[in-house]
Amino acid sequence: MIDPFDDAYFMKRALVEAEAAYELGEIPVGAVVVVNNTIIARAHNLTERLIDVTAHAEMQAITAAANYLGGKYLHKCTLYVTLEPCQMCAGALYWSQIDRVVYGAADEQRGCKTMGTKLHPKTTIEGGVLAEEAKQLLKRFFVEKRNLN
Amino acid sequence: MIDPFDDAYFMKRALVEAEAAYELGEIPVGAVVVVNNTIIARAHNLTERLIDVTAHAEMQAITAAANYLGGKYLHKCTLYVTLEPCQMCAGALYWSQIDRVVYGAADEQRGCKTMGTKLHPKTTIEGGVLAEEAKQLLKRFFVEKRNLN
């Protein structure tokens, strides 16, 4: 039986968020938080617009999900994010005790795996879901940015 | 000549913030951001009140300082924080490219040194300024919390 709510389904929603960031001239990264097959938070990178290095998609999604749940721990939740989380976002996910993190493209320079950031023992993490789509969007952004300057 | 604006001076201001957190029943950690001997941001931990694991003192101080400066990089700034930053906060400080981080008490369990979080190459970090005061306040908080439960 086909599961309509598989990882690709939710990662596509995160990609829609990444595209919204792209349209705003932000580094295109998007995220959604899911519990029981329901999206309870969605966000995209807004570091330029908010003039705030902490405004990564994941950070906003964590805050919004906790607000929705009325509790600060994201037990039974999954975060889908189009790019591997950085140290800051992985550190926030650590505190959230989230069940599961699924990312798209790897960030070999500044991703939490390369940087060795620890997640909570309760948390599982996996990457590579619609990685090519996420990577192509990022590539398009940086190529255009380079041509503009 | 005595410098009235030494590290202890600003750490005392961070401790005032930590005490404000304590009064609210929050884990007592406070922070200030300083540029040219002027405090441009002050914040204390609000994770319980805001129901948000990302609401550490440092995170709010980084956001407030960038808002004050009108730019997201905290060049020439020093962050004073009463407790060694965690992975999340050190990760945010990494992105901010802040000049200097000064902390009070060490956090041997979840501090950025133990966790191996990387700061920006431009950033220097040192600890131990009014460490005993910060530690005693934290100790008092956890002893009282234990007795209440």
From TrEMBL, chains A, B:
The active site lies at 58
Q: Which reaction is catalysed here? A: adenosine(34) in tRNA + H2O + H(+) = inosine(34) in tRNA + NH4(+)
Molecular function per GO: tRNA-specific adenosine-34 deaminase activity; zinc ion binding
Q: Which parts of the sequence bind Zn(2+)?
A: 56, 86, 89
Q: What is its EC number?
A: 3.5.4.33
Entry cofactor note text?
A: Binds 1 zinc ion per subunit.
* Stretches assigned to the CMP/dCMP-type deaminase domain: 5-114
Keywords in UniProt for this one?
Answer: Hydrolase, Metal-binding, tRNA processing, Zinc
What's a GO biological-process term for it? Answer: tRNA wobble adenosine to inosine editing
Tell me the cofactors it needs: Zn(2+)
Superkingdom as given in the UniProt entry: Bacteria
Among Gene3D superfamilies, the record links this protein to: Cytidine Deaminase, domain 2
**Pfam families given in the database record:** dCMP_cyt_deam_1 (PF00383)
Q: How does the annotation summarize its subunit structure?
A: Homodimer.
Q: What does this protein do?
A: Catalyzes the deamination of adenosine to inosine at the wobble position 34 of tRNA(Arg2).
Q: Which family, according to UniProt?
A: Belongs to the cytidine and deoxycytidylate deaminase family. ADAT2 subfamily.
Q: Which PANTHER family match?
A: CYTOSINE DEAMINASE FAMILY MEMBER, TRNA-SPECIFIC ADENOSINE DEAMINASE
Protein name per UniProt: tRNA-specific adenosine deaminase
Q: Which organism is it from?
A: Dokdonia pacifica
